[in-house]
């Protein structure tokens, strides 16, 4: 199979779909790889590094899209990229389609086949290709939250961990999954006062065992959200419903109850955000204020630390990509139900029920699309 890796073009996105290490593994398995020139610059991987790994360097993204059978990316394709895709071509990347009707239409119109990293599953019930970026975003959420609490950056002027004799900041994390857990680890490590709001009792038990008395674990109800969000200096939204829009748990009314210049970091923004007032921002303009509350809603947070996040993502994605390349996408998805769960668009049809529901589009079962 001919694998293609274009340079990412989303604002301030420095990750890359294939590292030189991944290229070497594809080549070792008998495949060809083409990489757009300077695609790896953000992770300090030169074109020579890719050539040494066995790739061929091409001049433009169009060269990649015109020639490759499978496109491996990081972020969702931008309109100029979906316009270059063709019928039957395979795209393997993050999609987050439920919050992006424009991208959905572009992929449907292209006739391409798109497998979303964020809905590939595992035997353990997790999301193995989403997990590494959730880990990065969760840890970053506390870093950026602490930074924007500085008064010079628009915040209330509170130090996350306080100092002896002065109360530490109240950090409220909504969602105790991978991102929420890693946020909590960072916030606890900085000696903030941490509350995690979670609805799964099994997960609550896990978090209690993990954090003990270092964090307050609360069952998720509307009363709990009302109570703790109103007391927070920093709220981290880490809610996830796989494939679907995030529920709007933080309402505009909550903002009026919060302390002025508090901060919301909405990690769930890729899926539409879990705050009613959230809208996607970029690393160029990461924050905005609503009713005196600072919102940070960057839709590609891990792109700010590409050397860490690109390698972490490639480690997770590589075995699945090799399986697809070795077997062909139809056989790979027929054989592997977890990969099949990632199939989101197939030759003009939406094959994720949650995406079809949220975008009010027709739905076709993945199994039916594969059989066809």
What does this structure look like?
The chain has 372 residues and is α/β, with parallel strands linked by helices. The chain has 2 domains: 2-119 and 305-371, 3-Layer(aba) Sandwich (Rossmann fold), CATH 3.40.50; 131-299, Rossmann fold (3-Layer(aba) Sandwich). The protein is 38% helix and 16% strand. It has helices spanning 20-28, 47-53, 61-67, 79-82, 101-110, 131-148, 178-189, 201-211, 222-231, 252-257, 306-327, 329-335, 337-340, 353-359, 366-371, and strands at 2-5, 32-36, 56-58, 70-72, 90-93, 113-116, 170-174, 193-198, 215-219, 234-237, 263-266, 287-290, 293-296, 343-346, 349-350. The protein has an 8-stranded mixed beta sheet with strand order 3-2-1-4-5-6-14-15, with helices on both faces.
Domain tally: 2
Number of helices: 15
What class, by secondary structure content?
A: alpha/beta
CATH first level of the largest domain: Alpha Beta
As a percent range, the share of strand residues is 15-25%
Computed Rg: 21 Å
Neighbour order of strands in the largest sheet: 3-2-1-4-5-6-14-15
Mean pLDDT: 96
Supply the key terms.
372 residues, alpha/beta, Rossmann fold, 8-stranded mixed β-sheet, 15 helices, 15 strands, globular
Quick description:
The chain has helices at 20-28, 47-53, 61-67, 79-82, 101-110, 131-148, 178-189, 201-211, 222-231, 252-257, 306-327, 329-335, 337-340, 353-359, 366-371; strands at residues 2-5, 32-36, 56-58, 70-72, 90-93, 113-116, 170-174, 193-198, 215-219, 234-237, 263-266, 287-290, 293-296, 343-346, 349-350. With 372 residues, it is an alpha/beta fold.
């Amino acid at each position: 199979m001919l694998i293609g890796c274009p340079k990412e073009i989303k604002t301030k996105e420095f990750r890359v779909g294939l590292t030189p290490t991944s290229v070497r593994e594809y080549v070792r398995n008998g495949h060809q790889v083409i990489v757009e020139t300077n695609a790896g610059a953000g992770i300090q991987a030169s074109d020579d590094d890719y050539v040494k790994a066995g790739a061929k360097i091409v001049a433009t993204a169009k060269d990649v899209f015109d020639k490759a059978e499978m496109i491996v990316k990081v972020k969702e394709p931008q309109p100029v990229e979906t316009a270059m895709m063709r019928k039957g071509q395979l795209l393997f990347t993050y999609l987050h389609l439920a919050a992006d009707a424009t991208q959905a239409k572009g992929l449907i119109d292209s006739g391409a086949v798109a497998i979303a990293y964020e809905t590939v599953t595992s035997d353990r019930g997790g999301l193995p290709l989403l997990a590494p970026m959730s880990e990065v975003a969760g840890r970053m959420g506390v870093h950026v939250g602490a930074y924007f609490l500085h008064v010079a950056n628009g915040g209330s002027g509170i130090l996350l961990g306080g100092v002896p004799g002065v109360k530490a900041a109240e950090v409220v994390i909504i969602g105790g999954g991978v991102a929420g857990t890693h946020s909590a680890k960072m916030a606890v490590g900085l000696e903030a006062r941490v509350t995690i709001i979670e609805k799964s009792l099994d997960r609550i038990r896990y978090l209690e065992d993990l954090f003990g008395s270092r964090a307050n674990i609360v069952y998720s109800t509307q009363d709990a959200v009302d109570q703790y969000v109103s007391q927070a200096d920093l709220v981290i939204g880490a809610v996830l419903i796989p494939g679907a829009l995030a529920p709007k748990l933080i309402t505009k009314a909550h903002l009026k109850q919060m302390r002025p210049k508090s901060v919301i970091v909405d990690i769930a923004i890729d899926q539409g955000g879990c705050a009613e007032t959230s809208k996607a921002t970029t690393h160029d303009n990461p924050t905005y204020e609503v009713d005196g509350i600072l919102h940070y809603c960057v839709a590609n947070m891990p792109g700010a630390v590409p050397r860490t996040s690109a390698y972490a993502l490639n480690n997770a994605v590589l075995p699945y990509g090799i399986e697809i390349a070795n077997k062909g996408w139809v056989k790979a998805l027929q054989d592997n139900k977890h990969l099949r769960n990632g199939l989101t668009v197939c030759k003009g049809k939406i094959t994720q029920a949650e995406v079809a529901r949220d975008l009010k589009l027709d739905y076709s079962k993945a199994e039916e699309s594969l059989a066809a």
